[in-house]
Amino acid sequence: MEPTIYSRFKEIVNNDPDHPAVIDERTCVTYSGLDRLVDSLISRFPSFIPARVGIVMDHSVEMVAAMMAVIKSGAAFVAVEPDFPPNRLTTFLIESGVDFVITQEQHAGLLNEFTRLIIGSEVYIDPALHPLPDRSQADRPAYIIYTSTPDGYPLGVAVGNSQVVHFADSFKRTYNISGDDTLLQFSACIMNIFIQEVFGALLSGAVIAIPSSETRNDPEKLIRFIDDNYVTVVSGFPYLMMELNAVKALPVIVRLLISSGNVLHASTVGHLLEQVPVYTTYGPAEATVSVTTYCCNTGVVLPDGTFPIGKPMNGTDVLLLDDQLCEVAPGKEGEICLVGDGLADYYTGDHRADLQPFATLADGRRVFRTGDMGRQLPDGNYAFIRRKDSEVNILGKKVVTGEVERAIRKSDEVEDCAVVHYSDEQGSAYLVAYVVPKTKSFRLSWVKNTMAQNVPAYMIPEFFVLLKALPTDAAGAVNTLALPVVLKDNKAV
Known about the structure:
There is one protein chain. By secondary structure, the protein is α/β, with parallel strands linked by helices. The protein has helices at 5-15, 31-42, 61-72, 86-96, 161-175, 192-202, 213-216, 219-228, 238-245, 401-409, 444-452, and strands spanning 20-24, 28-30, 52-56, 76-79, 100-104, 116-119, 141-148, 154-160, 182-184, 207-210, 233-236, 256-259, 278-282, 292-295, 311-312, 317-321, 334-339, 346-348, 358-360, 366-376, 382-387, 391-394, 397-400, 414-423, 429-437, 463-466. The protein is globular, with a radius of gyration of 23 Å. The protein is built from eleven helices and 26 strands. The strands form seven sheets. The chain has a five-stranded mixed sheet. Strands 16, 17, 19, 20 and 21 form a five-stranded antiparallel sheet that branches. Helix content is 23%, strand content 27%.
């Protein structure tokens, strides 16, 4: 029988029950303790068998237990951060079709329109509770992760048990993850790399170390947490690598850094390369976390100052195709397309028909069109060149400029707008909003207040430029090349 996330986890429980599984700043639970916690939570589920369960919780031992409980019950979890703007949080949970939501008392007020399972900071484990049946199946979704259409509408990517197990096995082999390792859980649960941090550890017999939000936001406290909890593997977005690069020295226990979510600029990791192996990876949510990997310490820096994204590591092959799905000539630019066992099952949500990146090749293989342009280097590694559409990463989080524009237009102060992203010399992206006011009494504070109800803070542009009208081309579309460029910190863009 093909393994599932829970069956692979159960093997570790049986082989090493007393090994620590999850640590947060309040408590620690072993693999066997986590398994008992999972059954305790399932025993409190509604009487019906769920298909999809929302999780809106602070990152903690209990959050990991909730995810595993949903998976063991045979359902898929839909994890959303509690600090998501209320409208955005509710919309995504509704469009994902959750049957109920697991949450904590401090967040229950956000979810009044849902059936809720509210758990405390310490979940009671009934010693008389017998192990509950495992209803998970390899061909069923394990989780649904948030993404957006090119126009910024919410969408869910449904990823199966088998894809996660497939990725975890490859992750373990590629980076030699074992029970001796402790992985830092740093990323938000709506991000692809969160799956790597949690299941890359749990399915390898390693430990997950979860800092509080206060610790995550303070580099000095984060370094102490890493040192105090013997963290050996740190994964995160390039901005985390940039913060660690500014630290005088990493704790000696750290043996590996993995950067994901965006291309990695050499200028952001120069000091780190002197201390520890640094890898950069590439992979969209539709390909179950990451597809390629590249060791920066022994690699080369491309002319634009970035590292290549590497070669495939988990059985998902990379193809560079043109618009007709034909392979481009060696060394030529093409769309990065993926084929293999790691591809997601399907999309959920009202706007899933708006995004159709899956196609079938002439040989019958299912292919995912990433929307990223790249080329293959002479040594076989791949290089990322640019996005085809308006997607960009801000502080390691995916942002679709179309969604930002829709959020701005919700304000009565705005007649029209366009949002453009630029990059500074460090390679960090920032947003500029070009706004046509509806009246002379335009108030930017009102626009930002309206946006805050619908999008998180990182999606609110750093700069706003007022224009009498947006420049257009002959076809009537906004001519972004005619917009005034806004420089950040006097650095060229």
